[in-house]
Amino acid sequence: MAKATLQTVADRVGVSRMTVSNAFSRPDQLSSDLRRKILDAAADLGYVGPDPAARALARGATGAVGVLLTNSSLRFAFSDEIATSFLGAIAEELAPTGLALTLLTTSTGPAGVVPARDVAMDGALVYSCEARTPALDWLIRRRLPLVFVDQTPAPGIPSVNVEDRSGARAAAQHLVDLGHRRVGILTAGADGPYGLVADPFAGRAAYAPRRRMLGWHDALERAGIRPTVVRQSAYSDRVDDGARLLLDTEEPPTAVLCFSDAIAAGVVRSATDLGLRVPADLSVVGFDDNPLAARMRPALTTVRQDVTAKGRAAAAALTAAIERHRDGAAGRARHIRLPTELVVRDSTAPPTAMSAPGS
Amino acid sequence: MAKATLQTVADRVGVSRMTVSNAFSRPDQLSSDLRRKILDAAADLGYVGPDPAARALARGATGAVGVLLTNSSLRFAFSDEIATSFLGAIAEELAPTGLALTLLTTSTGPAGVVPARDVAMDGALVYSCEARTPALDWLIRRRLPLVFVDQTPAPGIPSVNVEDRSGARAAAQHLVDLGHRRVGILTAGADGPYGLVADPFAGRAAYAPRRRMLGWHDALERAGIRPTVVRQSAYSDRVDDGARLLLDTEEPPTAVLCFSDAIAAGVVRSATDLGLRVPADLSVVGFDDNPLAARMRPALTTVRQDVTAKGRAAAAALTAAIERHRDGAAGRARHIRLPTELVVRDSTAPPTAMSAPGS
DNA sequence: TGCGGTTACTGTAGCGGTACAGAAGAGACG
DNA sequence: CGTCTCTTCTGTACCGCTACAGTAACCGCA
Predict the structure, then answer these.
(1) Which of these, A75, A276, A300, B294, is most buried using a 10 Å CB contact count?
(2) A102 touches chain B (CB under 8 A)
(3) Buried b / exposed e across A118-150, counting CB within 10 Å, b at 16+?
(4) Distance between CA B254 and CA A153 in Å, rounded?
(5) How far is the CA of A16 from the C1' of D28 (A)?
(6) Helices (H) and strands (E) in chain B, counts
(7) A57 touching B, CB under 8 A?
(8) Closest nucleotide (CA of B31 to C1')?
(9) Is this structure's pTM higher than 0.85?
(10) pLDDT (tens digit, 9 = 90+) per residue, B236-291?
């Protein structure tokens, strides 16, 4: 049986192809009698409905949007509860619009296939990618409606971010207020250099790490504190190395600010292994308010961001951008910045006399 | 500036449209000189490359595959580490093939859009869906290459499953061997009825829950044990209700078999809240060997399945199915069944005299 | 009875590519 | 020098659908 098309059905019923098309796509354009007859004939012929690819070409819309994840972040995206909640929120927000979500990686296929260039879609979210990855370049060149998330905002492109800087500042200020003077920072980056960092602002770190670093320094510098900074891989697998670099020293910090809760959990573990009690000997602050943070013992002091809201906002911004694009409307790109909030739990306390010997 | 197409570029360079197409898609078909010139002209005109939608129509391939998740499982898919690892493994396995992964939900959009029917793709994975959801029907009618995962195998459709039954049997046997006689089962299902279940095999539960139930009963029945069965929602949010139904009774079980580690964790928590010690007063067994299981205190006895291998196998089966489909080859559908393995940790122990009063 | 306004259907002209068969020219070879 | 084979480029015929501008019939109304 050859594949059935609109024409097949049209011939069978004795109407024009256009009428069959309308039967499927614009029911109000024909009498319900005829429509019934056409639908029956279609079912009879095994015609499922308009071919999505052909329809996409003719209509100029595919019904799917992409989300670009760096391939480094791919594994990460599915192992970190923060990233998965974000993706889940997007999917959930998109579902009622009928748009499917396509996962785009920055990797290249065998025949030089680049998803960001070669997959049909109506728009895309760019999530926490390095500023200039080839995949992102393709998306931009294609002039697809885009939304940047956790990414340096660019003019003309809507963006969704959180108050990384002020959140980090609050976290650092909290430590300062508790009386800490020797503070360590454990941050993360997609690429190196890893280990002890001399100039925390050198190198081109991703947006969120950079903003948080700024925030931490805002508060620390004002208090005259110069933190010890260690950078490690974004994968939480080998947190211990970074943590040890910070803690297993002559004069270890009395408090550590971490890029994420996952990293903070690793620090707590390492500290425990080294015989340090948290928070008595070491205060630890995370970031994100991962569900993990509340479950941990001691429960983690952290900076809350609402990833579900972030996902929703991103999805909404994207659908809006697609609509604008379709209508040819210009409209200024909105840059959304969601609030963050310090959540004080049990992993922070004033330094003890012993651990903070008056410098 | 009007949109550039192959023709635009062809006119500019003074060659045929076909040659420009070849310059992009089949570089070996023209001299590298001319190719250079064409690519330059294209860049100049802002032509990014062949339009994916048009190419999909002409070639009959889109470069994307779908994964169907019930919308109930959508939120679930992104909150359970087991599901996300699975998705991550698929994405990772797919990346080098250049195929993108499109998330399909069973929900329907505003204009009656059904992703499973209306999104162009080359094949799809069906993950743990109810047997006959409309979305799945559409996929089948479209005659897309499919692979079933954690789903009742169907003739002609490749499938990937794990040894749910024998794994569950081993778990139950472990409890029997420890001497437990009063055993509870806490299982999950996408739809009700929830609560105490008279006939654990009644209703049409999904494949995995059914197979595990069979396995548990295999071992329990042989030992002459009739378990108390409680079913609850697949969402781990409200585990406590189910756990309490089991534990907060006149003669509570001395051991509980759980559908997943997430549920088992909930049971442990509830038990603790009720003043029961695990494993002294209550043994708990999970399923999956979620990373969570090893982290928990007490570390959870569970049945390990390798979700990463499952994801890989599913992706491989799908690409194979797509290839067969393209080549018109028939080939029998392979049904893969991955092993499971009982992992004994610290959440199981013999019943104490007190908790198991000789019946 | 004539006329504007609906409703129901049709025809044409694309959407932007790719497959495939072929044509033209350039060497290679006997 | 004729023929054969390559390489390089071209022309045609789709892929399957939709937008849009008709046309024809029908309806109510003055």
Answers:
(1) A300
(2) yes
(3) bbbbbbbbbbbbbeebebbebbbebebbbbbbb
(4) 57
(5) 30
(6) 14, 13
(7) yes
(8) D8
(9) yes
(10) 556 667 888 898 888 899 999 999 998 999 899 899 989 999 999 999 999 999 98
